[in-house]
Design goal:
Three copies of one chain form a homotrimer. Chain A is an alpha/beta fold. The first copy, chain A, is built from twelve helices and eight strands.
Chain lengths: 296, 296, 296
């Protein structure tokens, strides 16, 4: 339904990008802004909800492939151009058959967890700048990033899935438990509730929450700073942190399989149907107050 | 000395409980309140200290077995009916011979660590609502729960054991180090000191500390919320968090063995004897200010 | 250039210390104060920067060996006698050839990571009392300690190395990721920026930051308290925390090798040369504001 544009504001390093084929379309969903050869910005711009439709998958894949293969890139920042929404969950109103039948990626994972694993393991430093709601896949993308900074007033993170009868599929059980410990990770995934910016910081869901007015400046300065350092040194240092802290792929795979299984269960399908009837996946109270919504 | 009652306020799911044999006795130690088929409440009610006498062990075992085997139960909350005490340590004034000679459970562990391991691995979500002192076995039970919420004003957690010459036996070395990192875990177990509610939150000992007036409402709402979700989805999601975050049983076993060894050492027996002479295990300053007491 | 004294204020347990050979020299770099047989204090006193010259290495080694082999010692506290500096990084103005050619220690590691591993695994409880800057090796020593307490106003921790083109060599990738989770550990090492006391507490870099006026009293009381407990019980309890929380030696070795490799790369040598020309390793703005300095 929506179409997609990936813009390239600089002409460096774009030769190997399939994204060009999208360049003439009019409604951008994800914008890639190569602010410098060392520092890129990826902006989700799919109003009104930044909901994750099936057509987003190849776009994200393309961008992550570009990130992985560029030789000069050091830092990438993910943010949103949509008021109140960083990036949210799967669009259950869309045709999901295409998505289910996608071939697995190189590690044998479904493309979604596969690209998250690639982002985490990439030698490029990834930073999520979270303003608005990051729920479901939006939270999973943020968790796959190397660092997360949130607006204290405007960020809300959540894994709402259990409230819809779904096991989250993009790795939050593996990642949250390593970030915040078992007790808080279980609370986040099993309560399926909204986690505002300040609680997200106290729990370690994000590195820090900052006053909204300071967030952009802080992330810009950090990204620019890291991008001024030596790429090989960044790579080697990140790799050593990863050895100690990244979940093994098998945990991500197991989570994905549990997600797929949950999606096929009749009680889950009934829950999702009931939620859709009450306004889920549409602009309005359901998505604006998703934590309350799934708990009702 | 004390006797025990397990009450059943609803009649569902009780057929297979051995607890009924206690139903006519008069002084409850642990109350089981089946508020709904999906959500139970377990209340420690053994005044004046909620001290852990040997007779508590089969009662806790029975309740954990009921939790594990009930087919509809989704959430269980542990709390206390005793002012100032959630649940504390072993009663060193009781005959402990019986306890030492208990046969091991199915995983080969002594019954105490065995039942804690079962509680953690159970598909039921367990929440500790901590008001008053949770020390020794009380802290260990709380740590074996999936989540912990504490009264900011009235909760005090601690592993006092090292102060008495004992290695803690119910797994806090394994569990605290995963919740709060090595430095804070070492401080908690080696200082053997009191950890009040707000510090417990900063350290990750509990999920959150809440104003005392808000604690019951918060935990009730969370328990009810989770209990409204799909049981299979809860189970699968919890299991995946556990893969990443639960200690292996061998660490719990090793800790228990170190505890038993420490209990047999003459310097430890002298320390415990001296503490008992000064009021340990009796109502009063020793138990009200246990952190100060063992440090003097 | 500088010389070294290790002082012994009590005469117990010094028989096996090689340190005596230094006893007549005049400019102390590291002071060992045996406040009691159970509780020692190690004070870095190498003004004006407490910079880590190659001559410090055998002194630290000697002290850690003394700590490891003393039979009565239970607690050691590391602090600084130099205003504004706890202990900082390698002195790049010194002849570093000697340091590079040191024979490996018993586990096959270079002496620096080797002695940090020994400190962590020692049965003695080690506490870093951090006032002033702990950067590079100073941060690494603090991280190898069992606990860290920082002055809220005067402590600054950092791993500045990536800013100089270096991979940190003393294990912070392995240790920080276990203390604070992947996101914050990546921020600390890749931003290479200053972390003041209060942020260090929020991130779990230190156990707690305390008002400067309270810091000494707090650490003294904690050290004295733990030193009053049973040594065997302390050892067994610490060992069980370590099982769950210490990085394997191979991660430390891999980090050291990456550090050595980075030091040999021309871009790194150019960065260090440029930093030295701007005042690095000398008293003044470079070291007083190292985070800003390497980011410029």
């Amino acid at each position: 339904m929506t179409t997609a544009t990936i813009e390239h504001e600089s002409d460096e390093g774009t030769a190997n990008m399939k994204a060009r084929s999208y360049a003439e379309t009019k409604t951008p969903q994800i914008r890639l802004d190569k602010r410098s050869p060392e520092c890129w910005r990826v902006t989700f711009d799919h109003p009104p909800l930044n909901i994750f439709g099936p057509e987003m998958l190849p776009l994200v894949d393309e961008i992550i492939t570009a990130i992985e293969t560029d030789e000069r890139l050091k830092v990438v920042v993910f943010d949103s151009a949509v008021e109140d929404f960083f990036l949210i969950h799967l669009d259950f109103l869309a045709k999901l058959d295409d998505m289910a039948h996608l071939p697995p990626g190189p590690t044998g994972l479904h493309p979604w967890p596969e690209m998250l694993v690639h982002l985490s393991r990439s030698s490029v430093v990834s930073i999520a700048l979270i303003r608005g709601r990051a729920t479901g896949m939006g939270s999973e993308l943020a968790l796959a990033c190397d660092m997360r900074f949130a607006s204290r007033e405007k960020a809300i993170l959540s894994q709402f899935e259990v409230g819809a009868g779904l096991v989250p599929g993009g790795g939050p059980m593996a990642r949250l438990s390593r970030l915040m410990g078992r007790g808080r990770a279980l609370e986040v995934v099993l309560s399926a509730d909204d986690v505002p910016g300040d609680l997200a910081e106290r729990y370690g869901y994000v590195n820090r929450s900052l006053p909204d007015a300071d967030l952009d400046g802080f992330v810009d300065a950090l990204a620019t700073r890291i991008a001024s350092f030596d790429k090989q040194t960044i790579m080697d240092t990140k790799r050593l942190v990863d050895v100690a802290s990244l979940p093994p792929d098998i945990e991500i795979e197991s989570g994905w399989n549990a997600c797929v299984a949950s999606m096929g269960r009749p009680p889950t399908q009934q829950r999702i149907k009931a939620l859709l009837e009450r306004g889920f996946c549409k602009p309005g109270d359901a998505e604006n107050r998703l934590g309350d919504f799934v708990g009702r």
